Each structure stands twice: as structure tokens, then as C-alpha cells.
Amino acid sequence: MKQWYMEYRIHKNRPGLLGDIASLMGMLEINIMSINGVEDRTRGMLLQTDDDETIELMGKMLSKVDNITITALRTPKLVDILAVRHGRYIERDSDDRKTFRFTRDELGLLVDFLGEIFKRDGNQVVGLRGMPRVGKTESIIAGSVCSNKRWNFVSSTLLRQTVRNQMSEDELNPNNIFIIDGIVSTMRSNEKHHSLLKQIMAMPSTKVIEHPDIFIRESEYDYHTFDYIIELRNSPDEEISYDSFTTPFDEGF
């Protein structure tokens, strides 16, 4: 059966409104999989039916209801599924739709978002911006756990600086998640590491690159390499700046 996402804005939340909508869906044999309030006076639903015409009919019928306005009726996107699950939308850049913004108090939502991305097969490159110790690497590991996939550090400074020059056949399984520190891999490594990095970037697998702006600046890859850019801040107004921790011998990040 096919899933649909429906979202509607409530103009007057009269008693029994949700019951009336649910009853209509029941008569049309449309299953409500999950439902939640999404932002202010907006409700989102994940629906299931095997008849596209029934969904179209329901949309036309609900458009006649004075108390609500249908704002979305579509095949669910990842952001729709998470909006229903968490009761809020992920903030996206208005100009760059591949950029998603989180703050540290939204780590649960970020981990869920990463976990859903990591479940997908094939080539994916995720960039993760953020200041030191904001929770970047921990979120990637937690997302890998949620997706039931193994993670491998290609380069990192989580406990100590790690620069891998080779990996075993088991580690190079395309189903694994490869974690790359964009500063370490481009500014603090050697030719053997660069060769391994190039091999991993060419694999049909998920790569997560911390500090993607430095990675782009110091390597042959560009912005179009990335499928998602995630920004993680301690607070919404925090500026992400690399000036204090991009010198070749600075170990403090």
C-alpha cells in the first residue's frame, strides 16, 4: 500500500474536528498511520491506501471544510516523516534547500534525521558544519547505530588525531558509514591517506564529512559533491567560524 503525507492548518479548532476528518478517512478506507501537531495550529498525518483516486477525492472533500486548509497532500518526504514523528519541521535554508539547521538541544531530531539518511543504499555524501565539541561526531555515531550500520573513522580527532592510511576488506564494505574529518584529511595527512580517501569517495557508500567547507577548499571536491549539508550550533545565532582551528599544527578541536 502507498503512503501519503497530509498536512492541514486549523482556522477554528472546534470540538470533534479531528474525529470528523478521521471518520471521513475511515469511510474512504484510508488508514491513518500516525498523526501529530506540526508547529503552530498545523497538524500532519501519514496515511496509507492502495487507491490514488481515493486520496484525490478526500483532498477535494476536505477543501470544502471551512475550519481547515489543506497545505500539503503528497508522497511523504523524509522531512514529513520526521515532522510527524517529532512534532516540528527541520529548519532549512531558504536559498539552499540541501542545507538543514539544528541546535544542540535538537540532537534527538538530528540523530533521527541522520539515521533515516544512513538507511539508504548507494552513494551519499553528507557535510556536517559546526564548532568544536558541539556534538558532530557523536551524532554521526548515534545515527549509524539507529540505522544498524557499522561506522569507520577515516580521519578524526574524537579521542586523539586519527589518520588512516589503509583499511581492511571488511572495513571497506560499501554498507558501512565512513566518517571523515575535512580538516585532518586535507591539511594534516599524507599521500597514502589521500589515496585511501579517493578510493572511499568513489565507493557507492555513505560518507559523512565534518568541516565540509575546509574539505572543499583544500581538495579536488566541490559543493556539488554533497547531497546534504547539516549545520549544528550551540544556539541559533552562533557563528560557525574556522579561523581558530584550521592551522596545520593546532590539535585543539
Automatic annotation (TrEMBL):
Residue ranges of every copy of the ACT domain listed in the record: 6-81
A Pfam family the protein falls into: DUF3388
InterPro entries: ACT-like_dom_sf, ACT_dom, DUF3388, UCP021288_ACT
Name of the featured protein: DUF3388 domain-containing protein
Source taxonomy: Bacteria, Bacillati, Bacillota, Bacilli, Bacillales
